[in-house]
Design brief:
Length: 190
């Protein structure tokens, strides 16, 4: 069992019979009031992000989450197919609604984790950073640093990321999957 003080970032708990993960938490103590834990968490079954305040003394059941290593195969007509690593016969299909923003990072043959709650596979968990190839990048214009020296580049999945002016089409860049931000250039294009 988890109490309010255990609800830190990354903690897994059950809320309204659904497994959830804490994204952000803040312990708030105001004068002459009971302490409150402000939280923002994601429902792993629906993908919905909720904000909720919990009172001191509330207890929660810890969610028993297992991870299964999977490989992304392909996406077709809003359905995305994965296979269990080492077992090509075991395939898992998700709809675009189930994956949410995760689909913006899916590249063929990339390994990631599937989140399993009991026997049900709920969603896909991306690695913290992924390497993606830049397909479109507007030209850099000398002296164009009024916006902080960044430009919007499109990567192979269709995601637009703000990157430095020196990034060109064909480069491979590392992108933070939680913040959708440029991290570094991995490989210069030819």
């Amino acid at each position: 069992m988890l109490d309010v003080n255990d609800l830190k970032s990354g903690a897994l708990f059950i809320y309204n019979d659904d497994p959830c993960v804490i994204l952000w938490s803040n312990h708030l103590k105001m004068q002459q009031r009971r302490p409150v834990m402000q939280t923002k968490f994601r429902n792993l079954r629906t993908g919905q992000v909720l904000e909720q305040n919990f009172q001191q003394g509330e207890v929660f059941e810890e969610a028993d989450i297992n991870r299964l290593r999977v490989v992304f195969l392909f996406g077709h007509r809003g359905n995305y197919t994965f296979q269990e690593k080492g077992n090509p016969k075991n395939r898992i299909t998700f709809t675009a609604e189930q994956l949410g923003d995760t689909k913006e990072f899916l590249v063929a043959n990339v390994e990631m984790d599937a989140i399993r709650f009991g026997e049900e596979i709920l969603n896909i968990e991306l690695p913290p950073k992924m390497d993606l190839k830049v397909t479109e990048a507007p030209p850099s214009i000398r002296g164009n640093t009024a916006q902080g020296g960044t430009k919007g580049v499109t990567v192979e999945t269709g995601l637009v990321v703000q990157a430095p002016l020196f990034i060109e089409a064909g480069d491979v860049i590392r992108v933070n999957t939680t913040l959708k931000e440029y991290v570094e250039r991995v490989e210069k294009g030819k």
